Amino acid sequence: MPKPKTSKDLNLKWLELFQMCAREGSMQAAAKEANLTTSTVSYHIKSLEDHLGIELLNHKSRPMRLTPKGERFLHSVDGILKALRKAKAEASAGDIVEASYLRIGIIEDFDSDVTPDLAIYMTGHMQKCEFLFHTDTSSGILDDLHNRELDIGVLASPSERLRDLIERPVLTDPFVLVLPRTQEGPVDKALGADSDLRFLRYSSNLFISKQIDLHLRRIGLPVSYQFECSNNQTLMAMVAAGKGWTISTPLLFSRAKRFHPRLKMVPFPGKSFSRTLSILQTPDCSHAIAELFADQLRRLIREHIMGPIHAEAPWLAEKFSLLD
Length: 324
Fold this sequence. Notes:
Oligomer: single chain
Order of helices and strands: HHHEEHEHEHEEEHEHEHEHEEHE
Number of strands: 13
Largest sheet: 6 strands, mixed
Strand content: 15-25%
Structural class: alpha/beta
């Protein structure tokens, strides 16, 4: 490989690849993210080091580590690139049709009724834009937003500090009980220790499961579980088959349409609780694009989810509601 030529001007690509290498811990991972070869990334990093006259990375360590001077330089680079991305977003904020690339993460709760129509709408209104639509858990989407691998995300609002992410609350989704339709008698009987039905829960690593567990501990309701699952459809199928009961939400219940004839949704007994579904955007994301996205998301939720659920369960009219 030829020795890099010294340039009078600092190359922006060098800075972006240096930031990726520092974040990923290896040139191979940075190359994969940037869709480049490892040798190309190495060449750009060497060009940057030659330009500055310092060693930024300890190339002999595994995993690769920053030198002390590299650590200080990274702090400056993070600030520079953040400012440039923000300036670019603000410059294009008034002209949605000129946007060139948008990465969107949406939890699977909206897969059936909202995400397909949302994708059609956004691509129709931003015809010059390349899109990435990604489905993941709330925690996965949050991590991707923090790491700037997504621009905008729809997820269950986390309890942790959001740092520099901007939150737009969209939907209040109350927790309810879902029981087999054949279950008769008071709800307390179905939940009792002598009941034939067992608690079927969402996997413990999910946001929703942690929120449910916290509330059950808070109200002093000990419940043992027989079955744990991360897939909503499987959980609803188990309840429909009479295997047990679960704590869920109207949004998740709406996804299990094929099982509705064998399910019933009732209010959670005692103190009620709910989760909030929010849009989170990075500070680089155009506010005009985020507004367009949020307005359409709310319209689709109202049309495809809230209308049918309110018709089936009028007692949810005030609880299952959009947030402005």
